[in-house]
Specification:
Blueprint (H helix, E strand, L loop, with lengths): L2 H14 L5 E4 L1 H5 L7 H8 L6 E5 L4 E5 L12 H16 L3 E5 L1 H5 L2 H18 L1
Parallel strand pairs: 3-4
Antiparallel strand pairs: 1-2, 2-3
Length: 129
Amino acid sequence: EGVSAAEDMLALHLRTAGIDFVREYRFGAEACGGAGKGLRTRLKEAGLQDWRFDFAIPAQKIAIEVEGGGWSGGRHTRGAGFHGDLLKYEAALRLGWAVYRCDPAMVKAGQALETVRMLLQKWNAELQK
């Protein structure tokens, strides 16, 4: 199964669990005031790119990335692509996001959904303090 199939499966799992999410969330753009006129300039001034998360739960700043290519030598596992991903994740962390990375096998096994549930429970527990 490819990444898009795994992403579709994770979307189904999240919807079934009643978890609100946004697909292809443009966190770089949102950090700079949203899409629209002047975005390129705003991104450049902020040292960001128009990065996207596969899934985001914006209210809790939880990002979910379904990583593909681990077994096939895809873009995310080669030098420039891997480095680009690290820059994206570093920027997300600096903006206060928790980034959860999983692969299609983890999605299929239900492990990804359980981890997202755990992250939400942890976030809610912190909120109660």
